[in-house]
Amino acid sequence: MILGTAGYMSPEQARGKAVDKRADIWAFGVVLYEILTGKPLFTGETVSDILAGVLKEQPDLSAVPVRVRRLINACLEKDPKKRLRDMGDYSRLLEMEGAAEAPGPEGIAAKARTIGWSVATAALLALSASFALLYFCKEPPAPHVVTRFEYSLPEGQNFTRTGRHVLAILPDGSKLAYVANHQLYLRALDQIEAQPVRGTNEDPMEPVFSPDSQWLAYFVPAGEVNSGSPGGAWVLKKISVAGGAPVTLCQLPVAPFGASWSNGTIAFAINTGAQAIPHSGGSLRTLVNADPKKEQVM
Fold first, then answer.
1. How many C-beta atoms lie closer than 10 Å to residue 36's C-beta?
2. Residue 227 is part of which domain span?
């Protein structure tokens, strides 16, 4: 597929070949020619006619001021290997004096200013065209896709602690975790069966994934395993999604209600308000105190 405006395309671009900055240098030469002469360099009734001129015609530079002919000619070499390699070298190709006339100092200065502005304007236009080509030809963003699915627990599995949070989904949507039979399970959505997370058979609840999808935090009772009671002391743990031993973060005096993990902090609610702890462990801090008689700490 060929992308671009026919009259400004380099020969290699018109042939659908790979292009680099030398195609921009060709476009610079075309734009500079138009600025100095007031007419397009390549014309034709159809796009095919214009492209044929780009590929075969040798540009007529007779209408271009003598001082810039070498520069434009170097920009419009059909073979990119012979073309001007870097726009920083343009000044070396400017003739110091015109061949047809020798104006006085003021005329030379005026011409120098005019040509300088023409070169700068052409460079700006060519650069803008390059950015526009990159912007409009880039791949559009992928459309937002909503995925809905159903997952039935395997025979013999039942959600633990009905009424509590027993399900979590990875931020990237590739996996889900759930609590069944007092055990955490992890299931990749491109697989049929869920796999038990080793070391989490302590009656966990309230699972939550880390924002980077690398860790899974959960709460377990601090007392007897499978106690069946949401009261009493609880422990917050985390485990790597890739596998490994659970890491204990802190102990709570009461059962939590829900959890959220963001900005390096795990936050959760308890019956006296909301608390948080760094994801690497440490001291608990109060976010919201549910007792209106006590000062709230935000």
1. 19
2. 167-289
